[in-house]
């Protein structure tokens, strides 16, 4: 690694620091969730077009010199990619990286939980939209709920912080919101309800009218059944508004992913599995790092390109969406964006 003359902490033009990288290790997934992709799946990238683990490791090391202290591995489903755990071991050993975490659907995760604990993984976000097996099958098009729950309890037993991510879908899992929130009564978990977004790989056309469950309505629904949601402290840059409920061990969170109320404190980048940088979930990609890596760019050149891309990012998700050359968000899948 060459020495850098760039600042050790980057800020964008709006004063927000770069501290957090969401790293997609694959675009492949073993589920076919309604809100993410069509039943037949999406067209996956050829293997040679995906970043290698060596390339990812080099990019993360560069980013730690620019202020990144937290990396969350996403996909697709991270455990679909072979040799993920050895890669995580190398990531965890990088100087300057303080927080390594993971988002997973839990289908393949349970056998790896002891290793995650050994590596010091601080938190796992578990995608789980229902506790009902039939509705799980209808949403994901796979009968894998027992495997997911096995992962859930294994993570709790290992002492790893668990955050459940539940996408709120009109007409599909509204009856599941309260049962999911009830998990926080007796368990030290956070259950986070996420506004559905239009990134579904062409599964259906999503509009503001077809996505009626915004963050306000979600909160009203939960309070009508569980009592007052009391705002709790959240760290700067957090996407979820967090709440406590009287008599509950855990917390409930609500993520205004489509309303985009948290953009003002965003401190993250996304690196897609094929090496694209997204400075906002809603932009169309602003930098091709794979081309730079395979074209012989130095670490310094990559760092300078990253700093420029981060500095010039949109003020919020609405601006990023307006600047897209192609505006049909539903053509993209969350599996290719990086969770």
Automatic annotation (TrEMBL):
Gene3D superfamilies assigned: Aldolase class I
GTP-binding is among the record's keywords: yes
Pathway(s) served: Cofactor biosynthesis; molybdopterin biosynthesis
Residue stretches spanning the membrane: none
Binding-site positions, [4Fe-4S] cluster 1: 29, 33, 36
Pfam families with a match to the protein in the record: Mob_synth_C (PF06463), Radical_SAM (PF04055)
Coiled coil: none
The keyword Repressor appears for this protein: no
Residues reported in the UniProt entry to bind S-adenosyl-L-methionine: 35, 76, 127, 197
Reactions this protein catalyses: GTP + AH2 + S-adenosyl-L-methionine = (8S)-3',8-cyclo-7,8-dihydroguanosine 5'-triphosphate + 5'-deoxyadenosine + L-methionine + A + H(+)
Record-annotated Radical SAM core domain positions: 13-228
Annotated positions binding [4Fe-4S] cluster 2: 263, 266, 280
GO biological process, one term: Mo-molybdopterin cofactor biosynthetic process
UniProt: GTP binding residues: 22, 72, 103, 163, 268-270
Source taxon at top rank: Bacteria
InterPro entries listed in its UniProt record: Aldolase_TIM (IPR013785), Elp3/MiaA/NifB-like_rSAM (IPR006638), MoaA (IPR013483), MoaA-like (IPR040064), MoaA_NifB_PqqE_Fe-S-bd_CS (IPR000385), MoaA_twitch (IPR010505), MoCo_biosynth_MoaA/MoaC (IPR050105), rSAM (IPR007197)
CC cofactor note: Binds 2 [4Fe-4S] clusters. Binds 1 [4Fe-4S] cluster coordinated with 3 cysteines and an exchangeable S-adenosyl-L-methionine and 1 [4Fe-4S] cluster coordinated with 3 cysteines and the GTP-derived substrate.
GO MF terms held by the record: 4 iron, 4 sulfur cluster binding; cyclic pyranopterin monophosphate synthase activity; GTP 3',8'-cyclase activity; GTP binding; metal ion binding; S-adenosyl-L-methionine binding
UniProt EC number: 4.1.99.22
Swiss-Prot/TrEMBL cofactor(s): [4Fe-4S] cluster
Keyword terms of this UniProt record: 4Fe-4S, GTP-binding, Iron, Iron-sulfur, Lyase, Metal-binding, Molybdenum cofactor biosynthesis, Nucleotide-binding, S-adenosyl-L-methionine
Family membership: Belongs to the radical SAM superfamily. MoaA family.
Subunit structure, interactors included: Monomer and homodimer.
Purpose: Catalyzes the cyclization of GTP to (8S)-3',8-cyclo-7,8-dihydroguanosine 5'-triphosphate.
Protein name: GTP 3',8-cyclase
Lineage of origin: Bacteria, Pseudomonadati, Bacteroidota, Cytophagia, Cytophagales
